[in-house]
């Protein structure tokens, strides 16, 4: 027997680029949760697992597209510092793409974001600036830094490349994965890039598809989604692409986050619990519907909050309509 092994000269054909791993996430059917919720009318609930992206969230899609398109237009050059205000997932995704493509990255985020998110951004080499006054102040500070010549703001809230990422990828994936049978699409709303991009694509295929957006109610504070003051409403938001907006109670979102993990094995964050709850409400009212919702990220980003160590008591589904 030879003591040496001849390398497989064709192994390179099996190697991919990290950028090619963004998107093409699984769409999985819920089984036990619909039974627990007594859904017997033929409605199908489908979860789009965006935590399977390389940096762990749905924000990998717009992060890559915003940087790539800016490169193609010549808006950014090698060595430029990129700046962005973020509540967490976009910052992690941008830090990953910036590292991948060789840009210094400065991120501004509210101090109340989870430690896991802050550590992830730093792991990718980003400079992190914490802002006590919240997201609106972080957005203002980012723009001031750009005005002072400290870098280029990508501006996820007003950048059409955010929406385009979902028009070009998430929407077509959902249409193909459901073989065109999708009847309802549900997404939490932060920058609104996901919901507007997906909605535009899906409604071009079938205008009858209903699109439901989720925002926190007046008392809720749910990571990654916002109830924006009018002056800070994202410029990419298009109201005519969203058929209904549902207000989400924080306690219910947290309960259904834990239900996803314990009944379906889907370990996700609070906004994903909100989407699961909303999908159940839609399913109960729409027999034979095919309902897809976005699971924005993975639950390991929230372990330090203690939210998974709660023993839930039964809740009355009529506490929210």
TrEMBL record:
Q: What is its EC number?
A: 2.5.1.47
UniProt keyword list: Amino-acid biosynthesis, Cysteine biosynthesis, Pyridoxal phosphate, Transferase
Check the record and name the PROSITE patterns matching this protein.
CYS_SYNTHASE
Q: Does the keyword Amino-acid biosynthesis apply?
A: yes
Spell out the reaction equation it catalyses.
Answer: O-acetyl-L-serine + hydrogen sulfide = L-cysteine + acetate
Pathway given for this chain reads: Amino-acid biosynthesis; L-cysteine biosynthesis; L-cysteine from L-serine: step 2/2
- SUPFAM superfamilies cross-referenced by the UniProt entry: Tryptophan synthase beta subunit-like PLP-dependent enzymes (SSF53686)
> What's a Pfam family in this record?
PALP
Taxonomically, which superkingdom? Answer: Bacteria
Note whether Transmembrane occurs among the keywords.
Answer: no
Residue ranges annotated for the Tryptophan synthase beta chain-like PALP domain, each copy included: 20-297
User: Which InterPro entries does UniProt cross-reference here?
Assistant: Cys_synth, Cys_Synth/Cystath_Beta-Synth, CysM, P-phosphate_BS, TrpB-like_PALP, TrpB-like_PALP_sf
**Example of a GO MF term:** cysteine synthase activity
Obligatory cofactor(s): pyridoxal 5'-phosphate
Gene3D superfamilies with a match to the protein in the record: 3.40.50.1100
Recorded family membership: Belongs to the cysteine synthase/cystathionine beta-synthase family.
Name the UniProt record assigns to this protein: Cysteine synthase
- The gene it comes from is cysM
